[in-house]
Design goal:
Elements (H helix, E strand, L loop, with lengths): L3 E7 L3 H12 L4 E5 L12 H6 L1 H20 L14 H25 L3 E4 L1 E5 L3 E5 L5 E11 L3 E3 L12 E2 L13 E5 L3 H12 L4 E5 L11 H13 L2 E4 L2 E7 L5 E7 L2 E7 L1 E4 L3 E3 L32 E3 L10 H15 L14 E3 L4 E6 L2 H6 L4 E7 L4 H6 L5 E7 L5 E8 L2 H13 L4 H5 L10 H10 L18
Parallel strand pairs: 1-2, 1-6, 2-3, 6-17, 8-15, 9-10, 9-15, 10-11
Antiparallel strand pairs: 4-5, 5-6, 7-16, 12-13, 13-14, 18-19, 19-22, 20-21, 21-22
The chain binds nicotinamide-adenine-dinucleotide.
Length: 485
């Protein structure tokens, strides 16, 4: 095989494989290198997202929701389902099938677009050269006119807890349990902690305890949304303990013992399994040979400008390994932008203000743009419109009355500055606000739009009407901080 290419992409996660596809679409001879080995022992593109993150977790969230609904949710609908049982092996097999189908799909896409996909570990060398070490240890050198670094990230660990990948696991291990843990501990009540805690609670864990270091629940979310979500998750049985610092652990004992600082007092709690979900770190150690002088920051993130250019000419970096949220869709869009630049096209820098965030709990939590507390801190004059799902006909028919939609608009221009939602299918509803914001839309634009009835989307419409104090199907008027809701 030719060792020269127009572009070499290191990493085939959502950022890297999308960048490679777009480069190939634009006529560039593209090599994509990745070292992931799938459950079947074969190279698998897709990175963490497909193999051990977004997709398998969503498969288990979906399956566990069906199980919990069959156990607890059907009676209300007049459906008596006796003898509902859990077949975890079958559930896990379905998850593996979903992952395998999607990774095979990406392999086919790479092949169809004539991307040369190589399995092995890549290291950036000076002068846009790359050393590729195969799984058998064989080395070869490649060279390209442009290099895209998309190495992704791995779960962070903490010193006070020793991971054995059996009883103390990271997010990947927590997707592979072969039986439902009776007492499950989770360190970190962030996105992963809440999603995986929900899975195992729904599947029958008696105790799911989340130990969170920060005093505030989901500090990046709108306060009103975080409050509502916390109440709802606690009602489902998640024991969320804030302001708790893990001090030490006995991970060799059965049960495991975790000691933590709760305010002024020292506490301890016993678990059968423990998930460490305290964030992720970029995979940049050893990514570039020292003599390249690739610039990293103190967190190991690759220095990148607004167009994802690193300090090395012709070398770009995208995805979890550069600043910004560690989200697949953000990395993928950076991949497209960089491919366009390499192909000599003009590409606008990404608008990070319109990157949506979603937590796939039940209710789902989703947001885009500025939070109310952020606007207040910045002294921005804004108006807020809130509409509760309890007032939506479709939500009532579904039995999904929890939560609300909140829109924030600039008081003067009426431009939408943020949208915050908690409730059923908010992962889908948030796209409406993202689109409106991308198009520079106002709350009036949404208010003047006709939405199908009955649909959950009408709640976005009503929230837009509420910005102007004229929601039609709600008597409630939320204060600017939503305190009356
Ligand atoms: P996170 O940053 O969302 O949450 C980690 C939490 O752990 C934080 O709240 C933090 O305060 C807490 N923490 C850190 N150290 C601690 C300690 N010593 N003791 C107790 N708590 C501690 O990170 P995550 O949940 O691990 O997720 C990692 C990344 O993956 C995130 O960037 C997330 O956006 C991404 N992700 C996204 C999705 C999604 O989009 N639905 C799903 C999963 C993961």
């Amino acid at each position: 095989m030719d060792n020269k290419a127009d572009v070499i992409v290191i990493g085939a996660g959502p950022a890297g494989y999308v960048a490679a596809l777009r480069c190939a679409q634009l006529g560039l001879d593209t090599v994509c290198v990745d070292d992931w080995i799938g459950a079947d022992g074969q190279p698998a593109p897709g990175g963490t997202c497909l193999n051990a993150g977004c997709i398998p977790s969503k498969a288990l969230l979906e399956s566990s929701e069906h199980y919990a609904h069959a156990l607890h949710g059907l009676r209300e609908h007049g459906v008596d389902a006796a003898g509902v049982t859990l077949d975890l092996d079958r559930m896990q097999a379905r998850k593996r099938r979903v992952v395998a189908e999607l990774t095979q799909g990406i392999s086919q896409l790479l092949q169809a677009n004539r991307v040369r996909w190589l399995s092995g570990r890549a290291q950036l060398l000076p002068d846009k050269r790359v050393r590729l070490t195969g799984h058998d240890g064989a080395e070869r050198e490649l060279q390209a006119d442009a290099i895209i670094l998309a190495p992704g990230s791995t779960p962070a660990q903490i010193d006070s807890v020793t991971q054995d990948n059996e009883r103390v696991v990271d997010s990947s291990g927590a997707l592979e349990f072969t039986e439902v843990p009776r007492r499950l501990g989770i360190i970190g009540a962030g996105v992963i902690g809440l999603e995986l805690g929900s899975v195992w609670k729904r599947l029958g864990a008696e105790q799911v305890t989340l130990l969170e270091a920060q005093a505030e629940f989901l500090p990046m979310a709108d306060r009103q949304v975080a409050r509502e979500a916390k109440h709802s998750l606690e009602r489902q049985g998640l024991d969320i303990r804030l302001d708790c610092r893990v001090l030490s652990s006995d991970c060799g004992t059965d049960p495991l013992v975790i000691r933590y600082q709760d305010g002024d007092t020292e506490q301890s709690v016993e678990f059968d399994k423990l998930i460490v979900a305290v964030g992720r770190r970029p995979n940049t150690q050893g990514l570039a040979a020292d003599e390249t002088r690739l610039l990293l920051d103190e967190w190991g993130l690759i220095h990148a400008d607004a167009h994802c250019r690193t300090n090395l000419p012709g070398v770009y970096a995208i995805g979890d390994a550069v600043r910004g949220p560690m989200l697949a869709h953000k990395g993928a869009e950076e991949g497209v932008m960089v491919a366009e630049l390499i192909a000599g096209r003009v590409a606008a820098a990404l608008d990070y203000d319109t990157v949506p965030s979603v937590i796939y709990t039940l209710p789902e939590i989703a947001w885009v743009g500025q939070t109310e507390q952020g606007l207040q801190a910045a002294g921005v004059d804004y108006r807020s419109g809130v509409f509760p799902f309890a007032a939506s006909g479709r939500a009532r028919a579904m039995g999904a009355c929890e939560g609300f939609v909140k829109l924030l608009a600039d008081s003067t221009s009426d431009r939408i500055l943020g949208a915050h939602m908690v409730g059923a299918q908010c992962s889908e509803l948030i796209a409406q606000a993202v689109l409106a914001m991308r198009l520079g839309g106002s709350s009036e634009d949404i208010a003047l739009t006709i939405f199908a009835h009955p649909s959950l989307s009408e709640s976005v419409h009503e929230a837009a009407l509420a910005v102007d104090g004229r929601a039609l199907h709600s008597l409630r008027k939320a204060g600017s901080d939503g305190s009356k809701l």
